[in-house]
Amino acid sequence: MTLILKGNIISAEKYGELNIIENGYLIANDGIIEGMYQELPKQYENYDIIDYGDKLIMQSFSDMHLHAPQYPMLGMGMDLPLLDWLNTYTFPVEANFKNTDFARKVYKELAQKLIKNGTTRVAMFSSLHKDATLILMEELENAGVTGYVGKVNMDRNGGKDLEETTQESIDETIDWLKKANFKHIKPIITPRFTPSCTNELMETLGKIAKENNLPIQSHLSENTNEIKWVKQLHPDCPEYFDTYQKYGMWNNKTLMAHCVHSSKRELQSMKDNGVYVVHCASSNQNLMSGVAQVKKMVDNGLNVVIGSDIAGGDHMSMFDCVADTIRASKARNILDNWETGFLTVSQAFYLATSAANKFFDELPGFAKGNKLNCLVLDDSKLISATKLSIKERFERCIYNREDGAIVSVYSEGRKVY
Ligand SMILES: [Zn+2]
């Protein structure tokens, strides 16, 4: 099926540069982008066109780190640092997902909210519960979200209500992988973080990931007390990342959230191995974890993508996460005596869209051959003093949008909103 969208097309083909086609055409065949055109190519003259008029058609977002079972506690416990926040709020809330009816209710709403906010791709943590994880995958699939979901593994330090034995964790993971057969939502191996997993479990998870060619997601160097704790648990490992690398969970299909306090050696190893930094600006500030060197990491050639980190982060909308990322980069610049620079709007937008395309084996922007993931935004209700350029309208919408500004969302060519 051919899909032709007409409007003001905005994409981030290159880091820091926007590709803008005013009143252009974005064409996809069977969900795969054919191209962007200023004039409609002759062969499409007799096709139906979906005309969005003066609206903005832009890449939709990839939220590369968020915790689905924390959705009901969004905005709670924001006066606590990471480890206290986990024990006081997060773990007790996550324990509720043993109840599959509750999981269904929460995950249905979460999946629809993601789409409504223009997030079409995710890398998401579930809880340790296999059944709830399958429900989450199903609800995301039904809503039109694509990407990865992980059943969380934790066989230590979760408290009595949120812990598996090592054998349970392994058996449940294997069973989950057998049952996780969805078209658009795929499994990702998810040790919560080093303090949650024994060496035996880590070793087996590394093997499972390797044997099944599965990606991996976890947390890294988020908080200084967490780093000290990891050091106590792994006296043999000089640094935090060694605890993942040692078990074969350190490659170009690995997503590591935060990396706020990563050392030079840790960052170099991420670069050498193609490991992704998932920068979570809002969460880092809420939990007072620190201010990550987001721009420096990008400038040094690391793979950097963005996560909302719900519910450490408090924004569902990736527009807000992009703005938070820019603010965090500015805070870092100030802390660095104005020496490291800050992210521009188009640079941060690239991180929230195109940078993640690479993880999904695609090219940046609306490249030919990519799946069509886009949103359509109506900013006509916002008042301006002068006639704005498309670029100005785009930059404003990152910070300022009316309710209901997103009028349509396409996920892999399917109209899902
Ligand atoms: Zn997280």
Question: Could you explain the architecture of this structure?
Answer:
With 417 residues, the protein is α/β, with parallel strands linked by helices. It folds into two domains: 2-60 and 364-415, Urease, subunit C, domain 1 (Roll), CATH 2.30.40; 61-352, TIM Barrel (Alpha-Beta Barrel). It has 14 helices and 17 strands. The strands form four sheets. It has a seven-stranded mixed sheet with strand order 3-2-1-4-15-16-17. It is globular, with a radius of gyration of 21 Å. The two termini are 18 Å apart. 52% of the residues are buried. Zinc ion binds at residues 65, 67, 219, 257, 309, 312. Zinc ion (ZN) binds next to strand 5.
Chart the SSEs and their pairings:
Elements: E1 2-14, E2 17-29, E3 32-37, E4 50-59, E5 61-67, H1 82-95, H2 100-116, E6 119-125, H3 130-143, E7 146-150, E8 152-153, H4 166-179, E9 185-187, E10 190-191, H5 199-211, E11 216-220, H6 224-233, H7 242-245, E12 254-258, H8 264-273, E13 276-279, H9 281-286, H10 294-299, E14 303-306, H11 318-335, H12 345-352, H13 354-359, E15 374-377, H14 390-399, E16 406-411, E17 414-415
Parallel strand pairs: 1-4, 5-6, 6-7, 7-9, 8-10, 11-12, 12-13, 13-14
Antiparallel strand pairs: 1-2, 2-3, 4-15, 15-16, 16-17
Helix pairs in contact: 2-3, 3-4, 4-5, 11-12
The chain binds zinc ion (ZN).
Zinc ion binds at residues 65, 67, 219, 257, 309, 312.
Alpha carbon gyration radius: 21 Å
Gross morphology is globular
Please state the second-level CATH architecture of the largest domain: Alpha-Beta Barrel
Q: How many angstroms does the end-to-end distance come to?
A: 18 Å
Oligomer: single chain
Low-confidence stretches: none
**Tally of separate helices:** 14
* CATH C-level of the largest domain: Alpha Beta
Global mean pLDDT: 97
